[in-house]
Every structure is written in structure tokens, then in C-alpha cells.
Design brief:
- The chain is mainly alpha-helical.
- It has one domain.
- 68% of the residues lie in helices and 0% in strands.
Length: 65
């Protein structure tokens, strides 16, 4: 299956393109992890190197979304 076909089928099924869905999922995961964290420099398993970029991305997304 081609990437274009996969992307089209994914969008039809889920209602948004794969990268949009993935970005939202990562931001939700990061926000959940940040809510439970007291450590200022803990590495982020959501895909950012440390907690600071995670907080920045979540705040930015919340402000625009």
C-alpha cells in the first residue's frame, strides 16, 4: 500500500491526517506526564528531550487549540 493510500484511508477512518493525529496524541501524553511530575529536568518519553520543551509544546498547543 502506498503512503498516499494509507494516509487517505487513515484520514477517512480517524477524521484527521496521520501527523495531525500523532501530534495531538503526543501532546496529550506529554500533558499527562507533566501533570504528574515534580522533577524539573526529567527526560520526556513523549518524544522531547527534557520536560522543558514538553511544557513549551503543550502550552503552545493549548494557546492555539
Amino acid at each position: 500500500m502506498s503512503r498516499a493510500t494509507l494516509a487517505r484511508r487513515f484520514t477517512d477512518l480517524v477524521g484527521e491526517p496521520p501527523m495531525t493525529y500523532l501530534t495531538g496524541w503526543r501532546l496529550t501524553l506529554a500533558a499527562d506526564l507533566l501533570r504528574g511530575s515534580d522533577e524539573p529536568s526529567r527526560p520526556s518519553p513523549a518524544g522531547w528531550g527534557t520536560e522543558r520543551p514538553s511544557r513549551s509544546a503543550v502550552r503552545s498547543s493549548a494557546a492555539t487549540g
